[in-house]
């Protein structure tokens, strides 16, 4: 069923535009996985050493912001390719 939807979408727009939208989706999925792994690691680290919770939390927020920035950049590039 998904393949028929993708084929219908490809018939209505160019293959490059379809690739740009798929790339934006992959960027969003990758960012979600990355942020999840950062959170998992931070919770495990706080569980091992609760006294360092403040430093670990700060590092987690900084890394999460970096992943969000990279994902946003990737999505913007995909949409620029879509509208060019």
Automatic annotation (TrEMBL):
<keyword id="KW-1003">Cell membrane</keyword>
<keyword id="KW-0446">Lipid-binding</keyword>
<dbReference type="Pfam" id="PF00137">
    <property type="entry name" value="ATP-synt_C"/>
</dbReference>
<dbReference type="GO" id="GO:0008289">
    <property type="term" value="F:lipid binding"/>
</dbReference>
<dbReference type="InterPro" id="IPR035921">
    <property type="entry name" value="F/V-ATP_Csub_sf"/>
</dbReference>
<keyword id="KW-0066">ATP synthesis</keyword>
<dbReference type="InterPro" id="IPR020537">
    <property type="entry name" value="ATP_synth_F0_csu_DDCD_BS"/>
</dbReference>
<keyword id="KW-0812">Transmembrane</keyword>
<protein>
    <recommendedName>
        <fullName>ATP synthase subunit c</fullName>
    </recommendedName>
</protein>
<feature type="transmembrane region" description="Helical">
    <location>
        <begin position="60"/>
        <end position="83"/>
    </location>
</feature>
<keyword id="KW-0406">Ion transport</keyword>
<feature type="site" description="Reversibly protonated during proton transport">
    <location>
        <position position="68"/>
    </location>
</feature>
<keyword id="KW-1133">Transmembrane helix</keyword>
<dbReference type="GO" id="GO:0016787">
    <property type="term" value="F:hydrolase activity"/>
</dbReference>
<dbReference type="GO" id="GO:0046933">
    <property type="term" value="F:proton-transporting ATP synthase activity, rotational mechanism"/>
</dbReference>
<keyword id="KW-0375">Hydrogen ion transport</keyword>
<feature type="transmembrane region" description="Helical">
    <location>
        <begin position="20"/>
        <end position="39"/>
    </location>
</feature>
<comment type="similarity">
    <text>Belongs to the ATPase C chain family.</text>
</comment>
<keyword id="KW-0378">Hydrolase</keyword>
<keyword id="KW-0472">Membrane</keyword>
<dbReference type="InterPro" id="IPR005953">
    <property type="entry name" value="ATP_synth_csu_bac/chlpt"/>
</dbReference>
<dbReference type="InterPro" id="IPR038662">
    <property type="entry name" value="ATP_synth_F0_csu_sf"/>
</dbReference>
<dbReference type="GO" id="GO:0005886">
    <property type="term" value="C:plasma membrane"/>
</dbReference>
<dbReference type="GO" id="GO:0033177">
    <property type="term" value="C:proton-transporting two-sector ATPase complex, proton-transporting domain"/>
</dbReference>
<dbReference type="InterPro" id="IPR002379">
    <property type="entry name" value="ATPase_proteolipid_c-like_dom"/>
</dbReference>
<keyword id="KW-0138">CF(0)</keyword>
<dbReference type="InterPro" id="IPR000454">
    <property type="entry name" value="ATP_synth_F0_csu"/>
</dbReference>
<feature type="domain" description="V-ATPase proteolipid subunit C-like">
    <location>
        <begin position="18"/>
        <end position="80"/>
    </location>
</feature>
<keyword id="KW-0813">Transport</keyword>
<dbReference type="GO" id="GO:0045259">
    <property type="term" value="C:proton-transporting ATP synthase complex"/>
</dbReference>
<comment type="function">
    <text>F(1)F(0) ATP synthase produces ATP from ADP in the presence of a proton or sodium gradient. F-type ATPases consist of two structural domains, F(1) containing the extramembraneous catalytic core and F(0) containing the membrane proton channel, linked together by a central stalk and a peripheral stalk. During catalysis, ATP synthesis in the catalytic domain of F(1) is coupled via a rotary mechanism of the central stalk subunits to proton translocation.</text>
</comment>
<comment type="function">
    <text>Key component of the F(0) channel; it plays a direct role in translocation across the membrane. A homomeric c-ring of between 10-14 subunits forms the central stalk rotor element with the F(1) delta and epsilon subunits.</text>
</comment>
């Amino acid at each position: 069923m998904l393949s028929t939807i993708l084929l219908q979408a490809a018939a209505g727009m160019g293959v490059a535009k379809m690739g740009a939208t798929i790339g934006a989706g992959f960027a969003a999925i990758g960012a979600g996985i990355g942020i999840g792994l950062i959170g998992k690691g931070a919770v495990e680290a706080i569980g091992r050493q609760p006294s360092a919770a403040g430093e670990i939390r700060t590092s987690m927020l900084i890394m999460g912001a970096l992943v969000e920035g990279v994902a946003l950049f990737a999505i913007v590039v995909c949409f620029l390719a879509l509208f060019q």
